[in-house]
Amino acid sequence: MEYFKGIEKAVYKGKDSNDAFSFKHYNASETIGNKTMEEWMPFAMSWWHTLASGSSDPFGSAAATRPWNGKEPLEASKMRVEAGFELMQKLGINYFCFHDRDLAPECKSLKETNEKLDIIIGLIEESMNKTGKKLLWATSSLFTNPRYMHGAATSPYADVFAIASAQTKKTMDIAKKLNAKGYVFWGGREGYETLLNTDMKRELEHLAYFLSMAVEYKEKIGFKGQFFIEPKPKEPTKHQYDFDAATTLEFLYHYKLDKYFELNLEVNHATLAGHTMQHEMQVARNHNKLGSVDINYGDTFLGWDTDMFLTNIYDAVFMMIEVIKNGGLKNGGFNFDAKVRRPSHTMEDLVYSYIAGMDTLAWGLRIADKIIRDGFFDKFIEERYSSYNSGIGAKIESKSTSFEELFDYAINLEEKGLPSGNQEMLEAKLNQFIYNN
Ligand code: XUL
Ligand code: CO
After folding, report:
1. CA of 234, nearest ligand number
2. d(Cα 33, Cα 252) in Å, to the nearest integer?
3. Which residue spans within 30-100 are E strands per DSSP?
4. Is 230 flagged in the annotation as binding?
5. pLDDT tens track for 106-165
6. Any idea which residues are catalytic in this one (predicted)?
7. Domain ranges of the chain
8. Which residue, among 268, 251, 257, 253, has the nearest Cα to 49 in the 3D structure?
């Protein structure tokens, strides 16, 4: 069966094309700097938003028009596999990502759930072999089932910790079987609603132990993929422990887990944390932990995790600057953790939205490459700190001075006034890079 009826494989037709099913900027084989666009941007389809969720929201049921609507749950899961691989082929997307529970229906017992899951994994494996598509990362949903209402690895109830571990073990086995490039831990309910009922220190100890067991099991089964932690400050819980990049890194260093994990950063999560995505990426890059990206963006008027397909060119440029400076996303990729708006309910809308997201990032890559090659902003920043290149500044830079020496220097100093930060000039220059291209 054809799920995306009458839609051909999307091709690059250039920026003036009026064909909505074509790429205007994404030209997979075109070389930018030292890599092709496809190498810079290993795109991934998210199983949950694209195939599983159907656009339900807290005020209404699934509204998306999908060929599997009304089918028996396992049958619907099988159809989703076919549709997913067809979509990846038509878009030229090489990777996909899933939560265990996106793939197959959850049954009364873990045993029965795993049996159904294995049927779908078999079909996915077959389709991977046929098409060459790959698993970017897998994860366990440790937040959907009501048993996780108080958390999973941070639940106050030991049985819940045990079931979460069992579920994670199974998903890691699947990740190994499908040769996943990575495995993501997103602590959806690893946080709290109120400290009136929460022992924060104990919960963090449990979370760290859970992750260390995952590391141990990874080594035991010989799973070669990269582990990632995905920070998010809130939603669904009021306060999530992996708040942002800096908090998550501190947690990893504190529990001596840093060498086993990189970060999977998400644009909308940065917004919720009150940061730009560029801030989050630069924090990670400074620690050599920029691993993978969940690509989307948030509506600043709404203030929750709207997970929209990225169409904001400014975000794309800032992100791609970080990616180029990182030498690419070595162990990760760009996973479209993004969903169509509820009124965009047709199968065609899925294709339009992926094309919009892929094109925006590709356009961002072109501009970021020009900005870096031109060197205007890098030179400006270099110049701004040039007082540290000689005299007393060089002593500070080389950490070879003292408070006494600085006191003697400053006591007779005649302050000459400071140069401007020139922010508005720089913003205008950025616009020139974007719109003159
Ligand atoms: C939720 C979110 C998750 C993770 C994987 O906000 O981003 O989908 O990416 O669990
Ligand atoms: Co995400």
Report:
1. 1
2. 34
3. 31-32, 35-36, 43-46, 95-99
4. yes
5. 999 999 999 999 999 999 999 999 999 999 999 999 999 999 999 999 999 999 999 999
6. 99, 102
7. 31-374, 382-435
8. 268
pLDDT of residue 300: 84
Atom of ligand 1 nearest to the CA of 186: 10
Residues 6+ apart with CB under 8 A from 60: 342
Q: Taking the CA atoms of the chain, what radius of gyration do you get in angstroms?
A: 24
335 alpha carbon – ligand 2 mean position (Å) = 8
By C-alpha distance, which of 41, 51, 39 is closest to 335?
Answer: 41
CA 337-341-342 angle, to 5 degrees, is: 120
**pLDDT at residue number 303:** 87
SS3 content of the chain, % helix, strand, coil (to 5): 50, 10, 40
**pLDDT surpassing 90 at residue 57:** no
> What pLDDT does 437 receive?
64
User: Average pLDDT of the chain?
Assistant: 97
CATH topology of domain 31-374: TIM Barrel (3.20.20)
337 annotated as a binding-site residue: yes
pLDDT at 421 over 70: yes
* Active site amino acids: 99, 102
* For the CA of 294, the nearest ligand: 2
Read off the pLDDT of each residue in 82-92 and give the average, rounded to a whole number: 98
Nearest C-alpha neighbor of 185 from the set 147, 226, 219, 125: 226
Nearest CA to ligand 1 atom 1: 188
Side-chain-side CA neighbours of 106 within 13 Å: the count stands at 14
Under 8 Å between Cβ of 46 and 91: no
pLDDT score, position 436:
87
Contact in structure between 331 and 181 (CB atoms under 8 Å): yes
pLDDT at 166 over 70: yes
pLDDT at residue 336 in the model: 98
Q: How many residues appear in the chain?
A: 437
User: What is the per-residue pLDDT for 88?
Assistant: 99
Atom 7 (ligand 1): residue with closest C-alpha? Answer: 337
Ligand 1 center to 220 CA (angstroms):
27
CA 152 to centroid of ligand 2, rounded, Å: 18
Identify the pLDDT of residue 219: 98
> Using CA atoms, how far apart are residues 15 and 261, in angstroms rounded to an integer?
39
Residue identifier of the C-alpha nearest atom 8 of ligand 1: 337
